[in-house]
Write a structure and sequence with these properties.
Layout: E1 2-6, H1 13-28, E2 35-40, E3 53-57, H2 64-82, E4 87-90, H3 97-102, E5 104-108, H4 117-120, H5 128-146, E6 149-152, H6 155-165, E7 172-174, E8 200-204, H7 213-225, E9 232-236, H8 242-254, E10 261-263, H9 272-278, E11 281-284, H10 293-300, E12 305-308, H11 313-317, E13 322-324, H12 329-341, H13 343-357, H14 362-386
Parallel strand pairs: 1-2, 1-4, 2-3, 4-5, 5-6, 6-7, 8-9, 8-11, 9-10, 11-12, 12-13
Amino acid sequence: MRLLIDVVNVASPGGQQNQVEIARSAETRCPPGWDIVVARAPSASKLESSERLQVLTVDRPARGWAGMWRWFHRDLPQLALRHRADVVYSLSGILSGRLWRRFGTVNSVNNMLPFTPLHLRHFSWVSKDRLRLEILRRLYVRSCIRADAVVFPSLHGLERVSAYAGDLAGKSSIAYNPVPSYVAFDPANPPRHPHGGAPYFFYLSVVFWYKNHLNLIEAYRRLLGAGHALPDLVMAGPPADSDYVRRIQQAIAAGSLASKVRYLGTMPREDLPGWLHHATANVFPSTCETNSFVQGEILGARGVMACSNVPPMPEIAGDAAELFDPFDPDSIGRALLRLASDERRRAQLRGLAAKRAGEFTRDACGEALWRAVLRAEESSRSRRRSAGI
């Protein structure tokens, strides 16, 4: 029996890293008699083949809708046939008729923007971005309805998609993102302090408008204006939205914050444990997620977390975070002040982070993934029997 995991169209940095974790999670719990083939793009995060996991490097199809159609309707079904797959697992959120008619199918949706009316209003009805999101939502919904099984990385994701696709609970699994191994360290030998021993607030995230950097900067500016002595604010992450990066830089300049606020851009992975662990608070004010990989990184590094109170952030953090309203700079500011002034609370959150991280293991994720895969294989077999195949 063979599982084919398709990650060719996963393009975001967090999504690419998550594909590695998901593939390794599947490998850790792979049932007897099964093996795994992962189809990845040449530019994707590094993933090595092993005894039960074969990695295929596949040329990414042409960009745009034509390339996407060709991949899901022609190239991926042919690849699945060539490698004798029994189940195809799409991390892209899209499945074609040729897939669900011929194979057991597992779908996964990791993008909530098309399903969130509040965020859709950010785009004009006549904009290309809005049209793209409306089309994606319909493709995701159709794929989830037709799939034999669906995997969500949070209950929030299941609830958002079910509002459009109907009740999916009977064929869905929740597979929380595993905490990545590269943020772990020996507590007796913590990573070096990256900021010269000085306190700092830290925000790690790919830069998009819905990640809410501007409200964080405004909260920080108001606190300084009120006379509070604050740690520096350091932000890092890939500059995916160049227009929003410019707005961030303009906000820093307009508030005369250049001596206190810095954006470092993309950060080497080996530097992350130190930045996450030693931060006075890791701030995560994002307004739209399915399950942010960054929250798992903070937990795994035993970091102090302050995050949005909108789903799924509280679901992922559990009790290991100080919560705030991401749409209210004053609420963000109050959380920052509490953590900056309360060492006991910070120590408590570090302990809770370590405990919460222990719940998001590769084994736990792998078990949930294989429940979905085995459900899909059984559903496909039943379908073929009914059709006399």
